[in-house]
Specification:
Length: 186
């Protein structure tokens, strides 16, 4: 059965208590076609219109900006990105592109958060946000969440994409790939 967010009319609690919505939906990577981002956000947008909610902050990926190439990251830029992001992550990124079109065309006051390589960290750290693209390779999930929540009261990035990078901590690339791709499949 499909998650509630991709079934029209079943987005739970949208707009009941707050005049904004935050979406961090996303499936695990798959070579099969992915529609959770686009269908999920289309349903969220429709529910927001039904309830008169105007502010949406949703998550995408820095990979969608064609100019994103972190400085001094030769191994990532020449091996990891073309292989992992551009090949294995293609179905997710194709759906994120469709989702970004839905959100941009929604008529809402939206912000699309674009993190770099996500990793787990136990607390919020120092992070940096910039319009469209930021020069960094990693984003802690805690920093992504904090930056998205901050946008609910900050309209600096309303109707814009906001790149988010973590500046205080940094995982190793190979360890990150192992934890995020290999170990999570077990």
């Amino acid at each position: 059965m499909a998650p509630a967010v991709v079934r029209p009319g079943l987005v739970p609690g949208t707009g009941r208590r707050r005049p904004e919505a935050v979406s961090a939906v996303g499936p695990p990577g798959s070579p099969r076609p992915i529609t959770v981002y686009s269908r999920g956000n289309a349903n969220i947008v429709a529910a927001m219109h039904r309830h008169g909610i105007k502010r949406l902050v949703t998550v995408s990926s820095s990979v969608l900006d064609p100019t994103w190439r972190p400085t001094s990251e030769f191994f990532f830029n020449t091996v990891v990105d073309p292989l992992v992001n551009r090949r294995f992550g293609r179905t997710a990124h194709d759906d994120m592109r469709r989702m970004e079109f839905v959100v941009r065309d929604s008529g809402l006051d939206w912000t699309i958060a674009r993190p770099s390589g996500l990793f787990d960290h136990h607390s919020v750290t120092r992070y940096h946000v910039e319009e469209d693209v930021a020069d960094g390779l990693f984003t802690a999930r805690s920093d992504l969440a904090a930056s998205m929540v901050a946008q609910l009261t900050d309209d600096r990035f309303a109707r814009r994409a906001m790149a988010v990078i973590t500046t205080d901590v940094r995982p190793g690339v190979l360890g990150l790939i192992w934890r995020e791709v290999v170990a999570k499949k077990k």
